[in-house]
Amino acid sequence: MTSPAPDPMAAFPFIGGRPCLNFVATLGRRHGGTPFERLPEPAALARWIDEAGLSATGDDETVRVTEAELTYARTLREALYRLVRAAMDGDEPDPADVTQVNEAAARPDLAPQLGEPDGGPGTPLRWTATDPGPAALATVARDAVLLVTSPLSARVKECENPGCSLLFLDDSQARRRRWCSMDRCGNLAKVAGYRSRSRAAATR
Question: pTM of the entire structure?
Fold first, then answer.
């Protein structure tokens, strides 16, 4: 039986706490089974860029992504994942991954601009770029470089749900966060624990 085709409109998890970790999460279920590709087509990458707040287009525009840019984005994503995992495990990163991430981070990224006043308090922020798609990915790559070279890298964890592979920045005060999200894996673990205790009590 073949797996169903990925839904290009599937919801993206934005619970990593950093743009690079949220981008890595566009490939789900990395451990065992069939990984879940959340970027099956260029339009899905364009939607991720928009929902991640990295769009440099106008309010009524959508960033345009080509097939070649999608292939590049997926390759960069996996290099970012391996780079972060190496930092988490205290290992030396693969030189090829370092080269790829550095090259991506060296590209022109998104430039912050002051937006037109909209009647609310403060001045709105908008992004601009000559080439919005690659600029968004350059911004993600720079975020990864800054993360793995900072003390924050010690706070990056993987969700303890065996069926989940999402990485997140543990910003909890006690640094004891175990799940990518209580709404996702945390509640599943609670339910599983409750059922296990109930079955054990029933057999006594």
Answer: 0.83
